[in-house]
Write a structure and sequence with these properties.
Layout lengths: L4 E14 L2 E14 L3 E5 L6 H8 L7 E10 L2 E2 L5 H10 L1 E4 L3 H4 L6 H13 L3 H14 L5 H4 L9 H13 L5 E5 L7 H18 L2 E6 L2 H7 L2 E6 L2 E7 H6 L4 H8 L3
Parallel strand pairs: 3-8, 3-9, 6-7, 7-8
Antiparallel strand pairs: 1-2, 1-4, 4-5, 9-10
Helix pairs in contact: 4-5, 4-7, 5-7, 7-8
Bound molecules: adenosine-5'-diphosphate and magnesium ion.
GO cellular component, one term: plasma membrane
Protein name: Oligopeptide transport ATP-binding protein AppD
Organism: Shouchella lehensis G1
Length: 261
């Protein structure tokens, strides 16, 4: 166990119960996220990546349940927190970005309003101050002419820009941990590279820790320090990125590597 870990996931088990049947979506997952580092969680569709992150954030939907294990964030067990305490943690210390920015942004609010609200919730800023900070944030995530974009609606932006706005909202609270669940899967390859570069840059400036969830080993190679390979709800391999590429141990990892272009 690393003493620099900001998040420690220990033997996490999450199941879905339907008609008395138990589906083990996450089946004994253990990993650490070290301060300022990026861990990649890679695995095919259905391997339990998203359910792992939703379990960490306490955002499982019915009938999903954590049935065992521990999730320690800065040494405190998140499974013992009340819903209100978890909301506070999600708003202030752990942020998340998802695959499809159109479904996570509110289509009826301007971009500026959505980022401003994130600022206002966390910092009690005036409207004017929140707007100013939102423009700065749009600049930070590389949106051109932010003074103009801030008054636009999500549909007026490209997919890449919407994902940048999502990142801006996620970062407005200066999280210590960012969970990025397939953040670039829905984007063109060039935009994908730009967004990954942006996450790396911001991680460096803000000193954030990141969990990068993806089915794409190329993304992992690009961004991560350590990698957990998931298969059938379990971590079948967990290693520093260079070791994984040099010496993959599990047949599934070998298969993944062979499928790289
Ligand atoms: P990934 O993100 O790796 O594609 P998920 O974590 O979303 O996979 O899902 C892992 C497994 O959890 C799925 O294969 C499925 O068996 C189960 N699962 C997810 N959501 C539900 C649900 N709402 N009801 C029942 N089983 C579910
Ligand atoms: Mg997923």
């Amino acid at each position: 166990m690393s003493k620099d870990a900001i998040l420690q996931v220990r033997d996490l088990r999450t199941s879905f119960f339907t008609k008395q049947l138990e589906v083990k979506a996450v089946d004994g997952v253990t990993f650490d996220v070290e301060k300022g580092k990026t861990i990649g969680i890679v695995g095919e569709s259905g391997s339990g990546k998203s359910i792992t992150s939703l379990s960490i954030l306490n955002l499982l939907s019915h009938p999903g349940k954590i049935v065992g294990g521990e999730i320690l964030f800065k040494g405190e067990d998140l499974s013992e927190k009340s819903p209100a305490q978890m909301r506070k943690i999600r708003g202030n210390e752990i942020s998340m970005i998802f695959q499809e920015p159109m479904t996570s942004l509110n289509p009826t609010f301007t971009v500026g309003r959505q980022i401003s609200e994130s600022f206002q919730i966390h910092e009690n800023l005036s409207k004017k101050e929140a707007r100013k900070r939102s423009i700065e944030m749009l600049k930070l995530v590389g949106i051109p002419s932010p003074e103009k974009r801030i008054d636009q609606y999500p549909f007026e932006l490209s997919g890449g820009m919407r994902q940048r706005v999502m990142i801006a909202i996620a970062l407005a609270c200066k999280p210590e941990l960012l969970i990025a669940d397939e953040p670039t899967t829905a984007l063109d390859v060039t935009i994908q590279a730009q967004i990954l570069e942006l996450i790396k840059e911001l991680q460096h400036t803000l000193g954030m820790s990141v969990i990068m969830i993806t089915h794409d080993l190329g993304v992992v190679a690009e961004t991560c320090d350590n990698v957990a390979v998931m298969y059938g709800g379990q971590v079948v391999e967990y290693a520093p990125i260079n070791d994984l590429f040099k010496n993959p141990r599990h047949p599934y990892t070998v298969g993944l590597m062979n499928s790289l272009p």
